[in-house]
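Notes to self after the call with IL:
- keep both proteins in one doc
- input above output, always
- annotate only the second one for now

Protein 1:
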Amino acid sequence: MPIINSSKTDPNKILPIQYPWAREHYKAGVANNWVPEEISMQRDVEQWKSPTALSETERRLILWNLGFFSTAESLTANNIVLAVYHHITNPEARQYLLRQAFEEAIHTDTFIYCCDTLGLDPDEIYNMYNTIPSIHAKDSFVVDLTRVVFDPHFSTEGTANAQKFVRDLVGFYVIMEGIFFYAGFAMMLALKRQNKMVGIGEQFEFIMRDESLHLAFGCDLINTIRAEDPGIWTADFQAELVALIRRAVELEKAYAYDACPQGLLGINADQFSQYVEYIADRRLDRIGLPKQYGTRNPLPWMSQATDLAKEKNFFETRVTEYQVGAALSWD
């Protein structure tokens, strides 16, 4: 049975497994389970309240990233639950989507936890998608890409409609979760490397590991659809997707300069922008599209954040080896 457009799917019958990769992503997600309240933010609170512990540039960077992620995670969850799940007709892939939806809820809860703990104004944070132009531009771009699949009458049947559905998957898995999140991840982990806002930084590490799995699942889903229906993968459609990803890179670069205009110790907006180009090439290659930038990774330490199998030992307050292993092997 195909992964979309199957009229024979029995949602109660997950065995035999047709797509082992979907089952493996589900199991890796379960092994990566965490909740934000397990991470202490006492030092974060002390630094946030201190008049000297953080520069204005660092405070701006923190607020911008909390503002972007707080709404981006909700957008992603809505897309999974209201659009993608409805059109996937394979039970093990649907099982993973349920797991991903739970993880998006955890991520949303993380930003509630951060705002409550630091005593931030929720109206300011959760309205940044309207008040900060670079955040608004990214959110609007993805919403516009995927608006058609929210039509209750939309169907994935036929080449044109299947292309629209794949466009949605590229919009959320490749662009939103695979590109738009990553300058923000790099900024927050750069702060953590300086021993600043370590609690938030650890939460971003866990989110990034979840997102690596989401991205891997999304790319496998896209590749499976195009393998089962190669007629959708026309030269024009490929060129359209490349152009969308290139536009996304420009929006993410603009956000990098907006959120961190003065740079941090040892790192600046140019490096964040180069990193976005580097990961965009990886995303393009992963779904069979030509690389566009040829940029080397300017932040090799970012790979450690996803490549190393670690979890927080919350009783010993140190990092220990983690059961997921190689499931998180790419950024």
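Protein 2 (the one to annotate):
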Amino acid sequence: MGKKAAIIEGDGTGPELVKAMLKVLKECNTQVELIQCDAGSEWWEKHGGNSYISPETWKLLEESNTCFKGPTTTISVPTAPRSVAVSIRQRFVLYANIRPIKSYNRTERKLDFVCMREATEGLYAGIEFKIGDDSAIAIRKITRNRCEKVIRKAFESAKDRGFKKVIAITKRNILKETDGIFMETVTKIQSRYSGIEVEEYFIDNVCQQLVKNPERFNQCMLVSTNLFMDIVSETASGHVGSIGNVYSGNLGDNYAMFEPAHGSTPKYKGMNKVNPVATILSGAWMLEYLGEKDIAKAIFTATEQVINEGKYITYDLGGNATTSQVAEQIAVRAAKIL
């Protein structure tokens, strides 16, 4: 039976980026059935309701082997629904959000490490309430169960990649209870991986080191709670040319969602100028997850060639190529490799 992937086009520049990604996947002759659907703030503004995701799209997500989410907009008002990404992560228990940070030849820093965060709880659990007209409280929910899942995944991923160190990021000197549970779990799980060292960094120090000396994290798996690692991975992306290069996956035990790490940049909607690399590589990773490893490898190789050559790159990388021109170059080269 063939594999199915639900493809959420998203908001802002999302539809044109997803179109570019689908062009590359189809040019490489993927056998995955790619079913496009709607979700996000633009859909919600037309239809309303308590979710950015329609019942029809939820049904399609549940019937698919995996899903891809184009960039979506989350409206920053209390009455708006929870973000598309958070909703899907929580519904399917996609506890591990993974963002590889790898530089290309054109960047000054030579980096190669992976950021992994617990993606279903922490401050992003969305438990907050007003305690008066001028004050509100947000709860940082940390459970041993979810810590164990993401930390085990971090050690397994480090082992698979040949990394010898896991960097655990906390603020345990202040958040003694929540980060206490997190670090207790790191210590417990490390005992099963004799060849992998652990180093604990506080979040403020990690951010300073990412500015000053990010190479110290090369060949390391960085793991943390939801908000901390969201900030760390975005900071790290500044060294790899652009957040437009950073792809990501959200993995659970039986399902996954793939997405570019960046937002929907609505101001550039319809201008055919936004970097499609993160979207294309997230799509390639989705194919790898579904078993099409040769196609995924070809797309990654072709993308590296295009960026390193520097002739067809978008404005954020110092070039003037369009979204569709970059996608065309990657598609042609990947198909040739295959």
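Annotation: The longest strand covers residues 96-102. The first helix runs from residue 14 to 27.
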